[in-house]
Amino acid sequence: MPMILRRGAASIFAWCLFDWAGSAFNTIIVTFVFATYFVRAVAPDPVAGTAAWAAAQTAAGLTIALIAAPLGAVADRSGAGRALLGVFTGLLVACTAALWFVHPHASDARLALALVAGATVAFEIAFVFYNAMLPDVAAPARLGQVSGLGWGMGYAGGIVCLGLCLVVLIDPRPPLFGLRTAQAEPVRATALFAAAWIAVFAAPLLVLAPAPARHAPMRTAVRQGLRALGASLRAAARDRVLRRFLLARMLYTDGLNTLFAFGGIFAAGTFGMGAREVLLLGIALNVTAGIGAAGFALAHRRIADRTTVLVAVGALAGLGVLVLLARSASAFWVLALALGLFVGPAQSASRSLMARLAPAEMRNAHFGLYALSGRVTGFVGPAALGAITAAFASQRAGMAVVVVLLAAGWGLLAATPVREGGDQTPTARPRSVA
User: Fold this and answer.
1) Which residues of 191-214 are buried (b: 16+ CB within 10 A; e: fewer)?
2) What is the span of the domain harbouring residue 132?
3) How many domains does the chain have?
4) Quick check: is 426 in a domain?
5) What percent of the chain has pLDDT over 90?
6) Please, are residues 130 and 338 in contact by the beta-carbon 8 Å criterion?
7) CATH number, domain containing residue 378
8) For residues 134 and 355, is the Cβ–Cβ distance under 8 A?
9) How far is the CA of 410 from the CAs of 5, 42, 247, 344, in angstroms?
10) Tens digit of pLDDT for each residue in 122-147?
11) Ordered alpha helix ranges (H), 165-212
12) Are 229 and 64 a contacting pair, CB within 8 Å?
């Protein structure tokens, strides 16, 4: 821990707290509450709702793929990373809060999808700048530990956030604060709660984030940043390790994002879970995911990042097959909780591995590429899931896309030569990252 504290305990805590803040969007809006509400109460039927939600996620993925890397490159030249983090966090809060105005009527479906897509773009772009700050707050030898702590706090935040929504908004009969059940106001109010949660807990990082290293004028920064982005793309194309890692992450992250976007919808449509049951499932999943992320944080010096990702993604693919075969809600619960154990390590180890691969002078641009790798085909999973779900009138058939993407990413990463152990510096890039 001394090397971490040298970078500033307050900065590390604020950085990890941003994961805690973002958990509200992932858990409340994308996966467990609002997505379920949309499918069951706003869309005409679960199949049509699943397909429409997939279309919105497809549009968001395409937008993120187009703007993430260029914005990261501009931030590297302008020193505007903290400012852009604030802008996109504010947009995330605004779009999330506006979901309150989505009533349980089909006429509000387009509003819901537009706001969710906008919030998804804001969330992902904000995390480009957030992730790029990791090497600024953590010493090189502790990147994995701090990354794991961040993911662990994110899952802990998800547990607390979901629990409060359950106790304060979903469960009380009659509802508190004069909320009307007939208009689904207790469920809609969870969007307001999530927006407030993000705003409050993201604020410390916006205040304590590392000061920018350079302040080029914005016009110059745009010109230089786009030129540097071209150089980064060419360098990534020449670097076999980085190229294959990003391609592998593109596949398995597409699978994970699709799982997050449609897990609650699948539970609601296939196993008939209501809002309360899905919310309880979300709390339980965040417990097991937090355990997994914390376990990686504790073991990061003994288990290399690449090995962690391979074990986690392989387990997710295998358990995913069993989930598709499950016929009872109880079996689904057991398998879903087992899945949660491996989600955190897969994401956390990927982030710390990228932090080791990214040159310090192009960190935002490389994390833009990192976001790009997670979103450039981000439309494929939701689009394929939506098309297959509609074609077969089966959510199980659509969710099979997740398993295929996870397995493909695992296979490519398994063939990528990254030196295990020690500082985990890849064999193709023998250098340390400050």
Assistant:
1) bebbbebbbebbbbbeebbbeeee
2) 8-414
3) 1
4) no
5) 23
6) no
7) 1.20.1250.20
8) yes
9) 35, 36, 11, 16
10) 998 998 888 878 777 877 777 767 87
11) 185-208
12) no
Q: Which DSSP string corresponds to 259-322?
A: HHHHHHHHHHHHH---HHHHHHHHHHHHHHHHHHHHHHHHHTTTS-HHHHHHHHHHHHHHHHHH
Contact indicator for 184, 212 with CB cutoff of 8 Å: no
Q: Residue 78 class from Cβ within 10 Å (0-12 exposed, 13-18 middle, 19+ buried)?
A: buried
| Amino acid of residue 169 | L
**Residue 2 corresponds to which tokens in the numbers above?**
């001394």
Give the rounded percent of residues in the chain with a pLDDT score beyond 70. Answer: 79
Residue 401 domain flag? yes
**Structure confidence by residue, pLDDT tens digits, 140-185:** 777 767 877 887 788 788 889 988 998 999 888 888 888 988 899 9
Query: Long-range contacts of range 334-337, CB-CB < 8 Å, 24 or more positions apart?
Result: 336/263, 336/267, 336/281, 336/284, 336/285, 337/284, 337/285, 337/288
The C-alpha R_g of the chain, in whole angstroms, comes to 20
Angle at 47 between CA 44 and CA 49, to 5 degrees: 55
Q: What is the secondary structure of 309-377 as a DSSP string?
A: HHHHHHHHHHHHHHHHH--SHHHHHHHHHHHHHHHHHHHHHHHHHHHHHS-GGGHHHHHHHHHHHHHTT
Residue scoring higher pLDDT (334 or 62): 334
- State both tokens at 26: 């992932």
Distance CA 362, CA 312 (A): 29
Conformational region of residue 170, where left means phi above 0, alpha means psi within -120 to 50, and beta covers everything else? alpha
Sign of CA dihedral 331, 20, 254, 318: negative
Peptide bond before 174: cis, by omega within 30 degrees of 0?
A: yes
pLDDT tens profile 228-276: 666 666 766 666 777 788 888 888 888 887 887 677 778 877 888 877 7
Domain membership flag for residue 1: no
Residue 421 lies in a domain: no
DSSP structure string for 30-46:
IIISHHHHIIIIISSSH
Cα distance from N-terminal residue to C-terminal residue, the chain: 17
pLDDT recorded at residue 194: 97
